[in-house]
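Need the bound structure for alpha-D-glucopyranose, inputs here:
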Amino acid sequence: MPLATAPRIATVALIALLAALPAAHAVTPAAQVAKPATVAPSESQAAFDARMQWWREARLGMFVHWGLYSGAAGRWNGEAIKGSAEWIQRNAHVPTDEYARQMLPLFKPKPGFAREWARLAKQSGAKYLVFTSKHHEGFALHDSAVSDFDAKDATGRDLVREIVDAARAEGLKVGLYHSVIDWHHPAYPYRDFARLEHPLPHPLEKAGDKEDPGYAKRANLKQYQDFLQAQVRELVERYGPIDVLWWDYSNPGAEGETWRAGELMAMVRKAQPGIVMNNRLYRSLGYDDPQGSLKWFDRAHGDFTTPEQAIPAQGVAGVDWEACMTMNGTWGYSALDTHWKSTRELVRDLADTASKGGNLLLNIGPMADGSVPEASVQRLREMGAWLQRNGDSIYATQANPTAPVTWGRITAKGKRWYLHVFERPADGELRVRADGALRARLLDGGRELALRRDGAEAVIALPATLPDTIDTVIELAPSES
Ligand code: GLC
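Answer from helper R.:
Posting the output first, comments after.
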């Protein structure tokens, strides 16, 4: 679906104009930032629903951030660098040659790492795996004909092939996270993007010509767009079915047609008609503020939106969404971040997300050899064990159909509701607004629980202690079922 030419010219003209202005004048108040150009989705609602079905039922995916940054493990030249570890090049302000010189020798994928990831994803109960085919650093995990900053040149292996094949062998759907930001490609015009009110960051964004000689000659948006298109084409045409394209990321002034998004999306859809894409080729501003990103949601810009490190308080009625989250505080591996969330917190996040009609994409950051930190392995296995017993209350469920409750969350499959009890009310009674003749039983083990009516509420008598301290699930269903 090619975008109309007019908005494209307007965007390019705007970038050129902003580039020509001194930085102080390039500021546009956030409130006045125009909504990005829209193309009406050419797909019927029924076709869209059919394409989204597996994704909507999956509810849990495993995200993987892995690249050269994994070898740095959070330190540059021995010094701990603040910020998410996959941003280390930017946060330590390292030019790409120096970054490559130090990082490439550390990146040594062990044989079979991909099978370990795929098995772990499967054990965790995740139904899909999304991994970084290229993060902002610009290093591609596939064998790219248009770059030598890629896994094939660095390791002699096509790591995208290994990961895609391993995921498929475990029966998982597989997706690619692909960064449109690029800190390596010589033509990437980072200074134009750094001048925006909401800049797209770059390691050298503040450097003068001294540190980056030849920038003016090299920077060329068209060349970078061609490169981006070519790499994405390789990714979607060579590896069999790809189920998700997870773009990352844009800001006002450098979004959509800055990347020739209409052309990119059309090319991806042609190669992978069933694929599901997020909307970060367009504005991602506010992705860490769910309401912010949702304000801009437009189906023409992608199939789903991606609140980051947050579960929207009310969910998002009528919009497909996926909360992406880390298990500690970083996406890429850091040896310094040991602040892990508990399994209980993670399972509750999953139940919370499902109760609001969304998916959870939960991240691991493997080390440079592909090993997954033990803390992540342990938590994912524990989540998997919980899902073995309680998966019916998560997969293919819908959002809470009744009033919110104080003691936990509710998911549903039609008239069958799943009460996720996080805290046992002091009087041992669980109250739910629900009509009709109902029965209640523990989902795990099937023990029936006494139920009485109190006006519009069903009142369920809980056991003296909750059998599952993570999340005890009670199935509430019509009596005759
Ligand atoms: C952000 C970050 C990035 C991370 C991603 C995950 O855009 O730049 O490092 O990959 O979000 O959602």
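Comments: The pocket of alpha-D-glucopyranose is lined by residues 65, 84, 86-87, 248-249, 308, 324, 331 (CB under 6 Å). The chain has 15 helices and 17 strands.
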